[in-house]
Amino acid sequence: MKGKSLAWIFTAALAGTGLSAVAQAQEKFVTIGTGGQTGVYYVAGQSICRFVNRNAENIKCNAPASGGGVANVNGLRSGEFNFGIMQSDHQYKAMEGVAPFEKEGKMNDIRAVFSLQSEVFTVLARRDANIKGLDDLKGKRVNIGNPGSGQRDTLEEIMKEKGWDKSAFSLAAELKPAEQASALGDNNIDAMTYFVGHPNGAIQEATTTVDAVLVPITGPEIDKLLAAKSYYTKAEIPGGLYKGNDQPTQSIGGKAVLSTTAKVDAEVVYQLVKSVFENIERFQRLHPAFKDLKPEEMIEVGLSAPLHEGAERYYKERGWL
């Protein structure tokens, strides 16, 4: 009897070990490329993972800081990331294989998941630098952004329309988003650039530590850019969000979008999408930039790539498509 009991325990232990191994084998790990830790992309990625890790079966989600939208496209291409947050224009440019992705060629397998917050190309300048418009940036110390960032790509498009290169600035810094607010406060740069949803922590930090003003991005070259590039729209930063900036500021903008590739398993995408949309009201409370998100817009507005089949399946189940 004792021998039978021991044999049963041993068999049960082996069975338990086998079940555990099967469970571990089924568990999938996904990584979302985000942005700098002071930016909205990072909060968005962390928030998505929060709901996935709580609600999706056998999926573990991680959302590390990254170099930004262009870097996230490249991360999707290389397989470093399963998902990536990027500007809507980056999704389009990757799919079409145009600058800054012309060397890599068309990314035929990029897929849309959903769009997120509206974003605005933002220039914040020290008041004592006397920068009142786009033309006043010439000859100044400007952070053009780190390579791979959204602000760098958009600024370079604007510079092309203006006929400028980096020599137009007395200093063309390549600081990461988390570094530029302190650089502005320490008088190491005259202006910082960002393509970001508002309100934003880095802009709040800068405007509370130094007398700084938002710079309107307008003019004939901007009108020409808007006419030529359908992924950009006129945008506005509301007045009163930041100290010393009581009036609205005109600029250009677009949407932040969550992208993936056709290689990512449809069930993983389905579970991620389901985890977010079944908790959309909680998601909206995790950052002020998310408060106006509407599912019917998130599944369409700003998406230039085809929907991933896993996302499409969920949207059809909900009757949204």
Low-pLDDT sequence parts? 1-24
Secondary structure tally: strands: 10
Approximate shape:
globular
CATH homologous superfamily caption of the largest domain: Periplasmic binding protein-like II
Query: Helix segment count?
Result: 12
Instruction: Report the sheet-strand fraction.
Output: 15-25%
* Distance between the amino and carboxyl termini: 63 Å
Structural class: alpha/beta
- For the report, how would you describe the main beta sheet? 10 strands, mixed
InterPro entries: TRAP_TAXI
Protein name: TRAP-type transport system protein, periplasmic component
Keywords: Signal
Signal peptide: 1-25
Give your account of this protein's structure.
Pfam families: NMT1_3 (PF16868). It comes from Stutzerimonas stutzeri NF13. This is TRAP-type transport system protein, periplasmic component. The chain is of the alpha/beta class and 321 residues long. It folds into two domains: 26-118 and 255-317, D-Maltodextrin-Binding Protein, domain 2, CATH 3.40.190.10; 120-254, 3-Layer(aba) Sandwich (D-Maltodextrin-Binding Protein, domain 2). The chain has twelve helices and ten strands. The protein has helices at residues 2-26, 40-55, 69-78, 88-96, 150-162, 177-185, 201-209, 220-228, 266-277, 280-284, 295-298, 309-317, and strands spanning 28-33, 59-62, 83-87, 110-126, 141-143, 171-173, 191-196, 212-214, 233-237, 249-261. The longest helix has 25 residues, at 2-26.
What's the structural blueprint in terms of helices and strands?
Elements: H1 2-26, E1 28-33, H2 40-55, E2 59-62, H3 69-78, E3 83-87, H4 88-96, E4 110-126, E5 141-143, H5 150-162, E6 171-173, H6 177-185, E7 191-196, H7 201-209, E8 212-214, H8 220-228, E9 233-237, E10 249-261, H9 266-277, H10 280-284, H11 295-298, H12 309-317
Parallel strand pairs: 1-2, 1-3, 5-6, 5-7
Antiparallel strand pairs: 3-10, 4-7, 4-8, 4-10, 9-10
Protein name: TRAP-type transport system protein, periplasmic component
Signal peptide: 1-25
Keywords: Signal
